[in-house]
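Now for a specimen:

…
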Amino acid sequence: MTEWKNGIAKITLPTPFSVGDVNAYLIKGERLTLVDAGVNTDTAWASLKEQLAMLGLKPTDIEQVVLTHHHPDHVGLLDFFPDSLEVYGHPLNERWLNRTEAFFHEHDEFYRALFYEFGIPEEFFPFIHHLRKPLKYSCNRSLTGPLVEGDQPLGLFDWQVIETPGHAQSHIVLFREKDGVLIGGDHILAHISPNPLLEPPAPGEKERPKPQVQYNHSLKKLLSYPIQMVYTGHGSEVYQLVELIEKRLSRQHERAFTVKNWLETEPMTVFEICKRLFPTVYNRKLGLTISETVAQLDYLSSIGGLGNKDSNPFLFLNKGE
C-alpha cells in the first residue's frame, strides 16, 4: 500500500534486471518532487500510475524529478513524462541521459583499452558492445539544472545534497536534518554492497575514476551526519547505518586482502583474479565482475598494499612484466 509517511511516499517499481524492483520516492515540498524515475518499460509506467492513484495523484501532478544517479533503473521513465518536466541531478548524469555518438565511441574505446590492460582474452571483446544493452531501458533527455554538494533542490528547502560518488560518478543523496532522513539511492542498500562500477573519465579528465576508493570515502563521509534512517534505492530501509557502514568497509577490506595473498603467491592478470573471485559468473557478467575485481586492486593500491608498483599496479600483475 503506497502511503505518505513524514511527507515521503515510497514507490516500488518493477525492473527487468537481476537486482529486482527499484524504489522511487515522492516528497511533499513546495514542489511535488519525484526522486528517481524507474526503468523505461510500459510495466513500470503502469505501476507508477497505479501507485500515484493510491495517493490521489497522477503523473502530471509531479512538478520536478531529482535523480540520485544516472543508471537506467533510476531514470528510464523520464521518457514517459512531458518534455516540460524539470529534471535535476549531478552534472555527470548528462552524458548518460543525452547520449551522443561521440560518447558511445569514447565509452567503447575506454573499455577496449581496459580489456587489453587487464589481460582479458580477445574472445571477450564483443562483450564491450553488450555493455550498452542496459541503456535501452534508460531515457533520452537533458537535465534542467545541476545539483552539487550543499545545494538545496528547488522547493525542497529542508533537504540538502551530499555528493557520494562510487557506485556511479553522478551519485548524490538527499539529507533532511530535522529528522535525520536520508534518501540514499544505491549508495546504501540493506541486503548487498553496491557494485563500484567502472566508468570512462569525466569530461576534461584523462585518468579513470577509482570507484571503490571513492565509495569507501563516500561511506565514511556519511558518518559525520546525524542520519537516523535511510530510504534505499532497492529493498528495505536502513536504520543502523553506522553498523552497516562498518560491516561494508570491513568485508571489502577482507576481500582485498584475499586478493593480496593470491598475488604474493603468484603474479596474475586482472582477468585471472576475476575468474578466481567469480568462477561461475565472470563470463556472463563480465562488466560487473571486472569492476568488482579492479575495485579490490584500486583499494590495495590506495593503502600501499601492492608494494612499490602502486603507480601502475596492473603492470605488476601481468605475467612476464
About this structure: The radius of gyration is 20 Å. The longest helix spans residues 241-265. Residues 101-133+248-317 form one domain. The mean pLDDT is 93.
